[in-house]
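Entry — protein

Goal — fold tokens:
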Amino acid sequence: MKIIPKNIRWQAAFSDRRALISLVSLIAVSVLFSICGIVMLAAEKDSDADECLPGQITEFSDDTESKEIVVSGNNSYLVHLKVDGKEFTHCYDKDEKQTVLDLLYRNDVYLNAEDTVNYDLSVELKPDMSVEVGRVTYEEVTERESIPFETKQILMSFALSSSLPTSLQDKYSSRLKNTAGSPGIREIKVKKKLVNGEVVETTKISSTVIQAPKDAVVYVDASHLLNVGGGAPTNYIKKLDCEFTAYSYDENGPSLTASGAKARVGYVAVDPKVIPMHSYLYVVLDNGFIYGYCYAKDTGGAIKGNIVDVFLPSDTDCSYFGRRQGTVYVISYGS
């Protein structure tokens, strides 16, 4: 049996003890670091918000969400500024006496003559105040709009055509073709006032017609306005051979007759010395055109003797009517 000297046994035991102490120390350090990590992580989770410190500026863009900022103690507060599409949050000490103007200068925000602020510049800042700057700009634009056309109706006695010579019938019929209308174009210059890019006011500067509208023309048969009856009356006071002319509406519409009534189809102008006013008549022309039953309601400077001026629905009718010969049947005398 080999005997180990005493001093060697003691050295071995001492070496084993140091190894054990090192192992225990290493384990203790590892545990301590783990605990510190857990504590720090918990503290981080408990405080996602940033702490507000006086003098701090936090900027938020339009495309990012605002972070939560907490006020440290009761000695500071937050103020918000929105300008040029950006938002800023500032932290102030409650002892600071700052105004809206100071807030703008702090952010190097300078106002143009017409820019707007939702608070007076001298107003003192308060907790959670939200200051907004409206940038005012102007732009001039030219726009075009359509001018609607009107439809003009022209009344004509189509029955007149059959009493015209063949050469005039074709011309008369050609006048009866309806024509389509077309809208015009108006150019408008406007001045737009914008606040932060949004139009808030529009002012018209000028308006110019660069293409006038073309009215549509529609010819409407007014032959039904003639009371032709069943032919010439068999009972009448007297029969007169007369010369006939025609007149129509003036450009302002129906004019007043000498009797005070508005001129219309069925009223004729006469010489009161030959045919008394308000007499009831029947008119037929030698070429076959029947004006029919009518009243003597008007007079005229050129209507002398056996001349009768009949009222027709349009100037075109009158131009084709010309001067004609025919017969007037006086059915009853007027007063």
